[in-house]
Here is the input.
Amino acid sequence: MRLVCESVGHKYGALDVLDGIGLTVADGECLAVVGPSGCGKSTLLGIMGGLVEPTAGRVFVEGAAPAGSLNPITYVFQDFALLPWRSVASNVALALEHHPLDAQVLAARVDDALARTGLREFRDAFPKQLSGGMRQRVGIARALAVAPAVLLMDEPLSALDAQTRELLMEDFLALWLAARTTSVYVTHNLHEALRLADRICVLSRRPGRIKQIVGVGVPQADRALPAAARAMAELAEQLWHAVRAEAVDAEREVADG
Amino acid sequence: MADRRPVPFRGGGFSPIPVRHAAAIGFAVLLALWEFAVRHGLVSPLFLPAPTTVVAALGDLWTAGTLWQHVSESLVRLIGGWCLGTLAGLAAGLAMGVWSLGRAVGVPLVSALFPIPKISLLPLLILWLGIGEASKIATIALGVFFPTVIATYSAIDAVPRNLIRMAQSFGLPARDVLRKIVLPGALPGILAGFRISTSIALILLVSAEMIGAQYGIGAFVLQAGNLMLTDQLLAGVLLISLLGLAIGTGLTQLERRLLRWR
Here is the structure.
């Protein structure tokens, strides 16, 4: 499934947040969106996911969702958005319960999602008993359970510590490479973007406009190899250069305002 | 180095340290002082009977069988009034919590009516409903209604919007969002509201029974006062306290059971 943004803009009252975003996420592509704080990254993702109404432009999906996809456009949240009163398995099941599924099919889907995210032993635990990394695994399991056609991830690793982030990124990459679901990954962390994305879209400071779209030529599986080190470093440099200028201006703007 | 000094501890930020048995000892000392003062004639037993006398009076009432009559009448009013007020309050609070028009109409209305001391409406309610049980139950129900409404809609407000957005992002129908996200998320706040509403119900129960009832703990306390039977009077007060304590304990149990996830 492809996701197409046509001149999407957004204003919160008088505040211009996003302006003229035209973007196509190809089928099976992982697109990272990076940019300084407050540039409207999360708002853009919200618009793509139908959780924020754009004040200009429209978002379309093109192509059929794969068979068995229950929620074609699926979100993974920065703060995990787990229900504290439900167990891990029950949190995953929440995404399925309102679909007309047999109890066995539902249970099998939950089991499969838990197995893929390494949560099988934690199925009866409650969110408060889990570490941040485990909680986000539940968030990912819940998203996998509905077999999404487009996965929208809003800074999914930002609430985690550096080591957990690294571990989860590896696991996430393995999952993504196995399924190649069309994905949009919003982050302020260039390292994450460079590790996961096929293309990286740099947004300008507010109002967020597309400043640059960088294609990462190296396949994800090879990026950690020594042979790719040089190309990746150059890319990182180029990206940082693009983001830095915006971040500096954005920071000044916040301080002035 | 010659000039070596230990770094002194400068304080732990006034964090409270649990002291075992302090509460029980404090309680016992107070009761002992009270008993001592009465027995040694420092206080007239007519005005303040000793704790043992009060407990004995309660025992007498129990054996005489009048205790249960008063308590049962009070319980019927308390339970009836609280349940009515709570059901109506939950419904109104829910409407105000999830429905914009309900909120726009309801919030100013509740703010305007909440401060009215509900006991002042008892005479009016007696005119409307008669001197019987209905007016007392209605007074309690009214007193319970407003704090329940406020607790319910504030609790719904306190449900993280993000959880609701999450549910919507997975396509849960509105009914399910309400049933699976909003209501369980609001439950802690609603149960906290029960604590307030039960204590209000108890106050109104006693007041209403003092104004116009033949039986009931409030009526009993008032009659004992009129006859200067201070031991019985305090026995009644003790009974009301025990009732309040029992309700509080029951609510704690309910919270433990329903909010195990916290």
About this structure: The first strand of chain A starts at residue 2 and ends at 12.
